[in-house]
Design brief:
The protein has 176 residues and is an all-beta fold. It has two domains: 34 residues, no CATH class; 129 residues, Jelly Rolls. It is built from no helices and 15 strands. The strands form five sheets. Strands 4-15-7-12 form a four-stranded antiparallel beta sheet, with no helix packed on it. β1 and β2 form a beta hairpin.
Length: 176
């Protein structure tokens, strides 16, 4: 299970291609041994009142709604979501994606959005390649609401495997 251990990424020494890697606390763009750009995450931290690290399979043509009912130990608004998708080794690069949807999110009308039934909603399906990181706030209505409480329009994060012949493994960390 990937949530229990940590492995250091390796990069082929292909000097003609850029790679995005996590290495020694940094998110880097590298070309061969040259670091072209970096985002230092060494001092990045989020207080974790509770967290969940879980691995599961998302089978071909199936979907899973991440919510407290099927993700033990957490409820309510989540401050941090990291999802890694692991594809079978023989998967073509053009097929290395799944879909995700945050059901019926309020359309952005201003930076200080108040959740109201009168607001228009957007329910758009987005692509997820190998990794997705989302952060929010623990302030009411500013985090990722996985609870769905108060309204059937809000809550949960839907993962969808659109492929007919590819099963994928999902590795997820949720922090509240």
């Amino acid at each position: 299970m990937a949530c229990k251990g940590v492995t250091k990424p390796t990069v082929d020494d292909r000097s003609d291609q850029d790679f995005l890697v996590f290495r020694e606390g940094k998110l880097e763009i590298v070309k061969g041994s040259l670091t072209k750009a970096e985002l230092d995450l060494t001092d990045f931290f989020i207080e974790a009142d509770s967290y969940l690290c879980e691995d599961f399979d998302l089978l071909r043509n199936e979907e899973m709604l991440l919510k407290p009912g099927n993700m033990s130990k957490l409820n309510g608004e989540i401050q941090f979501i990291a999802i890694k998708v692991v594809y079978p080794e023989d998967t073509l690069v053009k097929n290395e994606y799944i879909h995700w949807k945050y059901p019926d999110t309020p359309a952005p009308t201003s930076p200080e959005i108040a959740v109201s039934p009168e607001l228009p909603t957007v329910s758009q399906i987005m692509n997820l390649g190998k990794i997705m990181i989302l952060s929010g706030s623990t302030t009411d209505f500013k985090g990722w609401d996985l609870s769905g409480e108060g309204s059937p329009k809000f809550g949960g994060l839907l993962l969808i495997n659109p492929h007919d012949a590819i099963d994928v493994q999902i590795q997820i960390i949720l922090v509240k």
